Amino acid sequence: MKSRTAPRRHLAALASLPLITQLAGLGCGDTLIDVLMPAGAGGGAGGPEAGDGSAGCAAPLAACASACVDLSRSNAHCGACGVACSGGAFCSEGGCVCRDGDTMCNGECTSLDADPQNCGDCAVRCERGQSCRRGACEDGCPPPRVRCHGECVDPASIDEDCDCGDLCDEGEACDDRECDCVPPEVSCGESCVDLRSDDEHCGDCDVRCRDHTSCVDGMCR
């Protein structure tokens, strides 16, 4: 009787040929796992950390640093890894753009209708004391700003300097940066009064006329 062991040994040898072929292709530093693992399946070099824009991320996302991002709308990675949008711009279809109504001037989104440094077009500057209105330089300040020594400023920042805007009360005028009463009125307390006709301050501050009398030419009569 012939033995059946030999054919089985031949079959086992044939089955091991692909593995032997793969092992023969191992280079220095390669392992069996490296040879058998599909590309991009591992977390080593060439994985998501590589930042090559594809490895380890499902389309249409791309790998940037350790994250999968959409290069068409990521403000930190707009169009390519590491390209960040700034100056008020945002990422749209892989490019940094300004919101409707604004224009990119020197890396900043601004309104050409109101920016005195870019009035009507980029780098078109209004003169000192002018403001930009509807894309044109005009004299005067846009509310609520007021003119202060030739410049348009916020009223809250100018303290008691009455030269800056209309800060004096009714009946007062600005004199040497201070609000004073307009002659012939004088200051009595916190009010401007005419000592010639004011019944509460007749001829002088706090001189009150008695009942049934009135102040005429600075005297109670």
From TrEMBL:
Name of this protein: Tryptophan synthase alpha chain
Keyword field contains Signal: yes
Annotated keywords: Signal
Record keyword Signal present: yes
PROSITE patterns: PROKAR_LIPOPROTEIN
Organism the protein comes from: Sorangium cellulosum
Signal peptide residues on this chain, from the entry's feature table: 1-24
PANTHER family from the UniProt entry: STIGMA-SPECIFIC STIG1-LIKE PROTEIN 3, STIGMA-SPECIFIC STIG1-LIKE PROTEIN 4
